[in-house]
Design brief:
The longest helix is centred in the N-terminal third of the chain and has 37 residues, at about 1-40. The protein starts with a helix and ends in a 6-residue tail after the last helix. Strand 1 (about 240-250) and strand 2 (about 260-265) form a beta hairpin. It has helices spanning about 1-40, 40-65, 80-110, 120-150, 160-185, 190-220, 225-235, 270-290, 305-310, 310-315, and strands spanning about 240-250, 260-265, 295-300. The chain is elongated and about 90 Å long. By secondary structure, it is mainly α. About 70% of the residues lie in helices and about 10% in strands.
Length: about 325
């Protein structure tokens, strides 16, 4: 059931990403032509922004496809973290292709100036208006999906989170570019468009940093949310054969999957065969109650709690039952 739900979410996310990709490809071409025609650095910065977004959508489509591959001998915990890796590449793309090029365009405008043609600016503003509408539609589609998937909880998906960040930034970036272009047209001072390019660049660098930091945390082994961890601990503590839960470790291995490693002290009097049966039953029960628990390892211990709280990797004693 959980797998079916995840596949359904992925299909909806894929449609959202494809909508954003189509919008960005058309907008990038329009902005580039309009920017060259108007000699507008802000519009060219926005064109670079849309190109970066288009490339990132390709990364996200790859993430959606590759992260659902089944586990194999080389990757026994599956390919779920591919989703985080490709979202990290998308963040790098926003930083390099969007942020850095925007700053470069602003510096070039201040250094060399820009042409001042009324017809060019009118064409540029029309392009920005169309871009605003297209980006707005894409953003509304992404926000609608986020709301359908539980609001903030829906933003756990790095693909959906990246689309929302890109579209939101694009709407704000188009607004900044339009303001800079209008002020340049009215005053004849290129500094306004250059400032808009710098502002767009700073905005993109910030968004890239936030997306990259979140992807990094997920890649290096982020734990499940506290509510899920508390639920797992409570379920273990409720088992009649468990005397105490000495330590619990969790790590996300994908968007909807997690590794669970618990060190437990069983009640006295159980022989080895009973311990094995109990461990199998507890793991099966935990997997049924917590769909996120994809891989479950139990380590039976009778050591003091302080010692048992060390990482399983650090102690390496008694492989999980």
């Amino acid at each position: 059931m959980s797998g079916t739900s995840s596949n359904s979410k992925d299909r909806k996310t894929r449609i959202t990403v494809l909508v954003a990709l189509a919008a960005n490809l058309l907008i990038a071409a329009a902005k580039a032509v309009g920017g060259l025609f108007a000699g507008s650095p802000a519009l060219l910065s926005e064109a670079a922004h849309s190109v970066a977004d288009s490339l990132n959508e390709v990364f996200l489509l790859a993430a959606l496809r590759r992260s659902r591959r089944p586990a194999d001998k080389r990757h026994p915990f599956g390919y779920g973290k591919e989703r985080f890796f490709w979202s990290l590449l998308a963040a790098v793309g926003i930083f390099v292709m969007g942020g850095c090029f925007s700053v470069f365009q602003g510096a070039e405008a201040l250094k060399n100036g820009a042409e001042e043609k009324l017809s060019g600016y009118v064409a540029g503003l029309i392009v920005l208006g169309v871009s605003f509408l297209a980006e707005g539609v894409s953003l509304l589609r992404a926000l609608h999906q986020v709301r359908r998937q539980g609001g903030r909880d829906g933003l756990r998906d790095p693909a959906l989170r990246t689309v929302v960040a890109e579209d939101g930034t694009a709407v704000l970036g188009v607004t900044l570019a339009a303001i800079g272009m209008v002020l340049h047209m009215i005053t004849g001072q290129v500094v306004y468009e250059a400032s808009a390019s710098f502002a767009i660049g700073a905005l993109l660098v910030y968004v890239a940093y936030r997306l990259g930091r979140e992807a990094r945390d997920q890649l290096i082994g982020e734990s499940t949310d506290p509510e899920t961890a508390d639920r797992i601990r409570s379920l273990l503590a409720e088992q009649p054969e468990i005397d105490s839960v000495e330590a619990l470790f969790t790590m996300k291995t994908g968007l909807d999957t997690a590794l669970v490693a618990a060190r437990v002290d069983l009640v006295p009097g159980l022989d080895s065969e009973q311990v094995e049966e109990v461990a199998v039953r507890i793991k099966r029960s935990l997997a049924e109650d917590v769909s996120e628990a994809d891989q479950i390892f139990l380590d039976i211990t009778d050591r003091p709690a302080e010692e048992a709280r060390e990482s399983p990797a650090a102690t390496g004693e008694r492989g999980g039952a």
